[in-house]
Amino acid sequence: MNKTEQIFNSDFIISFATFIEEQAIKDSIVNAIEANGANFVYMHPIDNVSLKPYYSQLIKYEVGSEEGICALLLNFFASNYDNTIKKYIEDLDFGYICAESSAGEEEFEEAFENSLNAKVKTLVIGTDLLNHDRVENIVKLLAIIKKYSDFNLVILDESLEEKINSCKNFNLEEIEELKSFNGTLVYKLIDENSDELLASQTFANIAKVSNENEVFIISKNEKIKKVLKIDEKLHGTIAILKTKNSEDIFNGYKYKQVKIQKVEAWAIWLP
Q1: What whole-number distance in Å separates Cα of residue 235 and Cα of residue 182?
Q2: What is the pTM of this model?
Q3: What is the pLDDT of residues 29-48, one digit of tens each?
Q4: Which of 9, 163, 192, 259 could disulfide-pair with 218, CB 3.0 to 4.6 Å?
Q5: Residue 161: how many CA atoms within 13 Å on its side-chain side?
């Protein structure tokens, strides 16, 4: 059974670490909702407005907090694990994890309760986890969830899928303190290349730029030029940067803390 068929056959679906940019994945979720009455929980730092008619619950979490989100999934959905994993869960400070990730325990309780009567549960794992600083521990957490929960895992990246499926080391590390991602952020969305940087009005205000301004997006030693486009469907301080290849700009984790510089303002400072 391929990935889209697995999703289509489900009556409870959680998506995690994916904006669900692949149309085939989105279609399979929508078809599962229409055909099976599937309950769909969308978990991501950015609300995908195109999914609003379909998800029954949105769980937004902070950028970089994916490791903590995995721990919450483990706590609420896994069972019948050994004493080592039991002690690990008991020792976790979920109050701290929830505060840092901005995802409440009550949200996971709601998701769990909505899953109780489901016959086919699917957890869709996206590519945001690639190049995460804590990916090794995240892989272990997801491998344990796969083994000790009712979820069928649909992992959208083949290399990540191989790591999770082959993981035999369940020696979990402590959840690392969340790094701060303050200011303006961009999210690399693997799609068609675009000359635009899609942003909310809030993002533009913080960056001190306006709609249709040409801007430089600067991260460490990299700088690219785009046209900032206000998207009224976006909110918050994360802009969307569309690119065909995940490795062509700003390599690494899909979220980047960046500086936004208006092109005209940059030119003033040139000798």
Answers
A1: 15
A2: 0.94
A3: 999 999 999 999 999 999 99
A4: 259
A5: 12
